[in-house]
Amino acid sequence: MQFCRDNFSKALTFYRKKNKLSQDQLAQELALNHPMFEAVSQSILSKWESTKQEPPLLKRMCIANILGQSYKLNTEERNQLKHAQSLELQHQKFHNIYNYQHNKVESISWGKLDRFERNLIEKSHLNLTHEPLSCTINHFRNVDLNIIKVTYNDVLLGHCLIGRNTKYHVVLSMIFTNTEILKVLFSHLESIIQEKVIIPALTQSANYFLKYMQYEQVDTQSILPFYIMPVDDLKNNKLLRYFIEGEDDSTLKSFALKE
């Protein structure tokens, strides 16, 4: 069953029951996955399922994603989201015309990278963020630098540069050619981080999403916004996981509507 405006109440009921959730349990699940649902109660869910009330478009899309489903936009909704949907996500900007499957993932010290790869990473970071990588690094003092590399026969497909000191881990740069590479990078990142991680909003859409998740923003001089995120959210927040899995870009882009 497809989530869409005309079918929303039926799809909501269907997937709630499929996931063996009561209305009260689903209300709690929604609130755990995004602050916009903190005021949602069993009675509100009941009104949504009985079509007595209809949640706004962004909430309808997020509910579908939290339940692991995409949301089909109608013509009116596509027009409503026209600006937001034109926003470019990172893997679209750095799309690789070759559909490589990675065959190697490694984590090494930043200082052990050869000059060619370091130059490539620095150029791609500057292209994406408009800030030299050296400047991004210098905003965080006394960090040891390690990089996760994803490659295919030594062709670099993605990287995640991580700084670490006694207090925190910080993601300083993350670039990937497609969502499969993104999943690999996050999988390795999750295995490294213990409690909290500081991550940058590398695109406009990511900044909108992280801001409205109410994560604390770190005060730096960087042109990039950095946010503190609990590692549990990387692993367990269903809305965030839906975006990381790359199932559908529409909802992530649509957070721009809140600006």
Describe this structure in words.
This protein is an alpha+beta fold and 259 residues long. 45% of the residues lie in helices and 19% in strands. The strands form two sheets. A seven-stranded mixed sheet has the order 3-4-5-6-7-9-8, with helices on both faces. It has a two-stranded parallel sheet with strand order 1-2. Helix 2 (23-33) packs across helix 3 (42-49). The model has no long low-confidence stretch (mean pLDDT 87).
Question: What is the topological layout?
Answer:
Layout: E1 3-4, H1 8-18, H2 23-33, H3 42-49, H4 57-66, E2 71-72, H5 75-80, H6 82-85, H7 90-93, E3 104-109, H8 115-129, H9 133-138, E4 144-152, E5 155-164, E6 169-176, H10 179-192, E7 196-200, H11 204-212, E8 216-218, E9 226-230, H12 231-236, H13 238-244, H14 250-254
Parallel strand pairs: 1-2, 6-7
Antiparallel strand pairs: 3-4, 4-5, 5-6, 7-9, 8-9
Helix pairs in contact: 2-3
